[in-house]
Amino acid sequence: MQVSSAIRFRLLHRAALAFLLLALAAGVVRAAALEPLEIVTKTGVRVFNVEVAITPEEHAVGLMNRRTLPAGTGMLFDFGPPQMTMMWMKDTYVPLDMLFITADGTILGIAEDTTPLSLQPIMSPGPVKAVLEVLAGTSRRQGIAPGDRVGHRIFRR
Q: pLDDT tens digits for 76-134?
C-alpha cells in the first residue's frame, strides 16, 4: 500500500502538533532566555533574572510543573494593554508571590505566598500590564511593596 505525499504530510503535521501540545502540557517548552528586571524599593534596588511570557501558550504554561524556582529568578507575564487579570496555581508546585504591575511599572498589588496546586482564582487589584511571579516570601524579605517601581523593557518610562 502506497501513501500519497499529501496524506504523509498531514500525518507528520498532526504528529508534530501533538508533540508540541504534549510538550507545552508537560512544561517542557519554556519562555525565552532570562532577562534582567529591577525593582526600586524604599530600601534599595532589587535585581531579578526573569523569563518573559508573552504568547497565550506561554501564559497558559507559566511556571507549571516546576519543582523548584531559584531565588532571584521568576517569570514576567506580559499581557499587553492593561486589563483585569486572573492567575491561578494549577499544576504549580512552588509557592509564589505574584506582583501585579501597571503599564508604567508601578506595583499595584501583591498576592503573597500563593497556595501550590490551587485552582482558586487570584485577581489583580485593578487593570495591569504584567504579573511577576517570584518565590514565595521574596516580597517580604526584599521589602517589595505596592507603589515600588519595576524596570524592564516592557514598561514605558
A: 999 999 999 999 999 999 999 999 999 999 999 999 999 999 999 999 999 999 999 99
Q: Grid coordinates in use for 51? A: 523569563
Q: What is the 3-state secondary structure (H, E, C) of the chain?
A: CCCCHHHHHHHHHHHHHHHHHHHHHCCCCCCCCCEEEEEEECCEEEEEEEEEECCHHHHHHCCCCCCCCCCCEEEEEEEEEEECCEECCCCCCCCEEEEEECCCCEEEEEECCCCCCCCCCEECCCCEEEEEEEECCHHHHHCCCCCCEEECCCCCC
pTM: predicted TM-score of the whole model, two decimal places: 0.80
Strand bridging mode 96-101 / 107-111: antiparallel
Domain ranges of the chain: 1-30, 31-151
Quick: pLDDT tens for 5-57: 556 545 454 544 445 445 545 544 444 589 999 999 999 999 999 999 999 99
CATH classification (class only), 31-151? mainly beta
